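**User:** I keep going back and forth on a fold encoding question. It is easy to fool oneself when nobody else works the same problem. Could you pick a protein and write out its sequence and tokenised fold? Could you put it straight underneath, so I can go through it closely?

**Assistant:**
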Amino acid sequence: MASEIINSPITFAILTGLLPSLVWLFFWLRLDRKRSEPFTLLFICFIVGAASVLFATLIQSGIRELMPDTRTRVVLFAAVEELLKFFVFYMVAFKSDFNDEPIDSAIYLITVALGFAALENIFYVISPTTQEGITAGLLTGGLRFFGSTLLHTIASALIGIFISLAPRSAKGLGILLGIGGAIFLHSTFNFFILQNDSASFLQIYGYLWVAAIINLVILEKLRRLPPNPLPIPNTSPSL
């Protein structure tokens, strides 16, 4: 019975797609372990983040038909994904009373991003697993663990960092700068991947891990700051 479950391409794809996100989620949540966020809110962020992949796919399909230029599509695809992930965070956790520490916005955005990456990973792993076998699925899942899953994480974390660092009177500007930075990071990664050569592959993964380390250092600094004296106002940011 167990071997039948493991050998099922769909089951294997689900497990292989989920694992990278869950491992990264465990890693990043440890930054906030002293005042951890409520499980229910994190779970909702993760699930709704995953569901937003479906909307991203629909929008990107329309862009693909309307926009023949590959470079423009790369930027627009990245923008769609980063905007959708931010929208989920804004609707679910931005105004929450639990979003009361400098690191919290980044934690919720990371959770949304990893939900998004989990379902995206499943879709990417199903095809090679079904057509070429478990080894191909494992290779795809491993590459996404160190690449795309981490990319989604640090791009969304960047938005949270800008939100936390922006003055209360300029949260809208912080959001815009964060989303702009996330789109730039995401687009750059995708441009390098499109080069499809070993030098570009190594270059982009090095670039990605440097960005991850910088994010980690900043989040560690935010973790040590005291909680916000007042909850984030229950008003829409002035974009």
About this structure: Confidence is low (pLDDT under 50) at residues 229-233, 235-239. The chain has one domain: 8-223. The chain is about 80% helix and 0% strand. The CA atoms of residues 10 and 126 lie 6 Å apart.
